[in-house]
Structures are given as C-alpha cells and as structure tokens.
Amino acid sequence: MFSRRLLHTVRLGTATLAVLASGSGQALDVRVLIQEGASVPVRLLGTGGAPQASAPVWKVEVRGSELALNGKSAGSSTLYVPPSPGSRVQIGSKVYRGGVLLRLNRGKVQGINVVNVEDYLRGVVPAEMPALWPEAALESQAVVARTYVTQRVNPAQPFDICAGTNCQMYPGIDGEHERTNAAIDATRGEVLTYGGQLADTYFSANSGGYTASAAEVWGKNLPYLIAKPDPQSVTASGERGRWQITVSPAKLNSAATAYRLNVGTVRRVSFGQTSASGRVEEVTVVGSSRTSTLKGASAGGFVRALGAPSSRARVDSSSPLRLSGQGSGHGVGLSQYGALGFAREGRSHRDVLGFYYPGTVVQALHYQPVAAATQSAPVLNAVTGAGP
C-alpha cells in the first residue's frame, strides 16, 4: 500500500539527500515542485511494465506538525517514494515519471516529483519548443534545458526547480513527443560549461534581431552572455517577430505601482537611452504628482510590465500609449527562433550553442556511485567545444 511504502522512508537525512542529488550513479535525479497547497492528491501508478491503473488516490494534507494520508496521521512531516525504473506517479491532475517527495512547509503540503534528469527533459523540451522544429534546434534546447536544471540541483534546498514559467515548463508525461525524445537521447548528458563551471543557459523565444547581454537585463556581467547581432532570429520569425500593443491606463498605473514610482496618476511615458542591443535602458514616467525615471535593468523590466513582449521597443504614441518593437522575451542567451534559422541552414546544435554562448564548451555529465553523502555532485568530462 502507498502508506506502507511511504512510512518505510519517512525521514530524509543527509545521506538520502545525497542519493536524490546523484541518483543511482548512472544519471542525475532532480526534484521538481509540482504543487503546493492545503492538500495534494497523489497516486502511485506503478511502472510501464506493471501499471496500476486502478491505484487509489491518496489525499495528503496537514495535521498539526505532521502530514496525513486520507485523514490518518503519517507520523512524519516528510514522506518519500523514491523513483524506480519506469515508475510513474500522479501529483495533482498530471502524471509524471519517477517518484514523489511530500513535505510540510509553513502549513502547506509540497508535492515534489523526484525524476531522472533525462526523463524530466522529456516533458520540458516539447513544452519550451515546438516538437516539429528541426533536430538541431531541438537538440540545442535539450542541452540548454539540461544545463539549466543541473545547475540548480542543490541538496541543501527542499527542491531544485519549479514546474512553471518562472523556471522551465514541465507538464509531465502528457507533454512528451517522440521527436523531442530523440533530441534528448542524441545529446544525452551534454551540458554547457564556462571555465569548468556550468553556464547560465538563459533562453527566450526571439531576440528580435539582436541578443541582449545579461548585464543590461539583470546587471550580471557574464562574458558568454553578450549583446550581438542575430539576423537568424529575424529571418526565421519574419513578421511574427514584430509586434504592436496599446497599453490601457489601468495597465500603465499598475506597472507604476509595481515599480513604486509614486507619481500619482500616470499622464505620459517616454523612452530615452537604449542599450547596445536596442533595448530600453531609460524610462521617464510623468504623473499627476511627480516625474520619475527608471534606468538600466529596471527600465527594461518596466517596459515588459506594460505588456510588451520585449524591451526592444519604442513609443509610437502617448495618448493612448502605443508601443511597437521586435522579439519576444528578455533576449539573453539562446533565441529559439534563431536556433530554428540555424537549423534550417543545416547547422548543428553545437553551432547554435557556440553562437549564443560564445566561449562555452559542451561537456558530458558522468556520475559517481553514491558511497557517501559527500559524493553528490556530477563529474564533468570534456567532449568538444560548443562551436566555432
């Protein structure tokens, strides 16, 4: 029964967390926060070879300082069913590969999917990029997504990553596709590094023809995340890469409030200085009580808060406020439409990664068997450069 399996492994110590970090020694397990609330429904669905279609639903909820299963105290604030080959679990309304970790956090239940990183990617990659795009684009996304999550694995934290747009979209098994599965298999274990460390592999939908630097968007100086022309994004996206929006007064005042400008009712917005990539770096907001100016990364964030797909934007009219521009997303790192353009030209995923993360290296992850809690980190072995 579910409760019996859980109660055999209810307390997670340092050694258990080390196992979660390193998996079986063959691949990396990651912990994905799927759901948090007053209760979390869970079903153990067995494995592909031994499915349990009629498995009961267990309602996991809070009872004092402990968790309860279908109203009965579990005697612990943490419950864990580890992943096994082919295992599947339903957390909330969706089905995931791997196992489940349930924990009490500030009066709520956290439902966390513990899953092999390669299986995790099977849900992520088609959720982040259209599965019918060319192989090189999908392989680029797989390496970027693998690096992104591997960098965030931290046994000292209760989970490594979330399942929504603030992290990487992860809809579970229902989102998988055979073409993205093939891209994940073709790049198995590949990650990007810089100076021997995992790289920050930010990505967005469309750079709008010019990638942004991490410095201009977030104030982070990273030598491989720079501003540079990106004609492939324009070629691949065409007119879809251009946009125009009208900002309502309510949206405008909401953004001003979010940025604590304290200008009263907003009367007028103007853009000043732009970055090397053509993104807004200065915004002046004139209100009924005062005028305020935002600069740097805050200016770009304000533009996106107005509903603009990108801060590579300009003001077309003030009343009503109309903006137009190019691109979608922050523009740092991989441009997905740019990857599409490179792939259509017959370039490889290493060519794509070398363009968007210059100076990085593609390396293969290999994992040490877990003999002690100290053996919890993946080992990086160099394979080849990311690109020319």
From TrEMBL:
Keyword Signal in annotation: yes
Keyword Cytoplasm: no
InterPro entries: Bact_Sporulation_Assoc, SpoIID/LytB, SpoIID/LytB_N
UniProt keyword list: Signal
One term under GO cellular component: outer membrane-bounded periplasmic space
Pfam families: SpoIID (PF08486)
BP term (GO), one: sporulation resulting in formation of a cellular spore
Domain Sporulation stage II protein D amidase enhancer LytB N-terminal: 106-194
Signal peptide limits: 1-27
NCBIfam families (UniProt xref): SpoIID_LytB
Protein name per Swiss-Prot or TrEMBL: SpoIID/LytB domain-containing protein
